[in-house]
UniProtKB/TrEMBL annotation:
<keyword id="KW-0442">Lipid degradation</keyword>
<keyword id="KW-0443">Lipid metabolism</keyword>
<dbReference type="GO" id="GO:0016042">
    <property type="term" value="P:lipid catabolic process"/>
</dbReference>
<feature type="short sequence motif" description="DGA/G">
    <location>
        <begin position="244"/>
        <end position="246"/>
    </location>
</feature>
<protein>
    <recommendedName>
        <fullName>Patatin</fullName>
        <ecNumber>3.1.1.-</ecNumber>
    </recommendedName>
</protein>
<dbReference type="InterPro" id="IPR016035">
    <property type="entry name" value="Acyl_Trfase/lysoPLipase"/>
</dbReference>
<dbReference type="GO" id="GO:0016787">
    <property type="term" value="F:hydrolase activity"/>
</dbReference>
<comment type="function">
    <text>Lipolytic acyl hydrolase (LAH).</text>
</comment>
<comment type="function">
    <text>Possesses non-specific lipolytic acyl hydrolase (LAH) activity. Hydrolyzes phospholipids as well as galactolipids. May play a role in disease resistance.</text>
</comment>
<comment type="similarity">
    <text>Belongs to the patatin family.</text>
</comment>
<dbReference type="Pfam" id="PF01734">
    <property type="entry name" value="Patatin"/>
</dbReference>
<keyword id="KW-0378">Hydrolase</keyword>
<feature type="domain" description="PNPLA">
    <location>
        <begin position="62"/>
        <end position="258"/>
    </location>
</feature>
<dbReference type="InterPro" id="IPR002641">
    <property type="entry name" value="PNPLA_dom"/>
</dbReference>
Amino acid sequence: MAAVASAIPIEPIYNMDKLSYEIFSILESKFLFGCDDSPRLSPSAKNLPVAVSGGGGRVRILSIDAGGSTDGLLAGMSLRHLETALQKRSGYPDVRIADFFDVAAGSGAGGVLAALLFTSGPEGRPIFTADEALRFLAENRGSRRKGIFGKLFRTRGDKNGRIFRRIFGDSTLKDALKPLLIPCYDLSTGAPFVFSRADAVETDGFNFRVREVCEATAAEGGRRKGTAVVARSVDGRTEVLAADGGGVAVGNPTAAAITHVLNNGHEFPLANAVDDLLVASIGNGECDGWRRAEDFVRIAGDGVSDMVDQAVSMAFGQNRTSNYVRIQGNNACGSPHSIKNSSSIDTEKLMRAAEEMLTQKNVESVLFRGKKVAEKTNTEKLEWLAGELVEERERRMACAGLPVVVLKQASPRSSSSSTC
């Protein structure tokens, strides 16, 4: 298996001397010879770190919603389908989701998925395949009364919390293969808090163990219920009292991921507008109006996710059909497995409902015209996305232009072997 994995083509890596030469050549062409067709540079490009991915193309962003009406299973199933499609289209059976995205963001169950798919294992490859991540969610799905994965980390020190320790060990955010963003709600400050690989690389005061990040983003409740999770940075200087990571706080982290990219010129020197991005936003099913009173928080969370989708669609404008894809399941779209109470049905039925949502033509936002039923099914959208991602990767590997992504390094000494 290791021999096969090593045959997977790696996107090119630049050293600082070559990068400086590339930048100088473009500036020389523009100012000395009147050529003005060069890529745009961020003002902070002069401070580019050492490890760089291949030139040309769009920054590829993956955003995964909180649990929704499928407890994260729709997103898990979508990513499994996408990974299979990427393997077939690229011709390499061992490529992973992380090989085709530059940034990953996830909230709640989506944050757990992102961590499973983008945390580096002993051989520098993702610790889980998309299929393994889906099976993890299915096997560890908690009772709704205890919250998503309530059995796993209802409280710190719960014996079942050892599952995350077994999977992630002492891995920290610095061990993420790509820039990773996972939000939670910090009760101590009364505001959202985003765990970020970029911040972790800057200082240990923002470097957290991945197992604690997963507990924090999927925690529900508060102090009185004893369900809040305390996450501490590896140096002990920063403490987060986390709850409701995937509820009304940041149920859809797409906007947060886009903002991170467009305002981070060090890692994304060529990303200046939404047309420089390729965004995949993966939902987990929406709630219907039949929800009981105690589920109003979840309804509010769905509303926030829809608002984010609407805002992102508006921001992308005419590029929304080529640079932005939204995968979502709508219970109102005629699914015979309508999920009226996801805590009362078994995981097998929920898996079937999520699988059927992939065949739906979901409701999507339309520029200045509210919403309409999409022209393509979720499965067709995923197939289209796979084609775009493979083309993007091949373009980078063949292009010798300026880098799209410059991965921050924890230590300059590790830059020569780092990939993006």
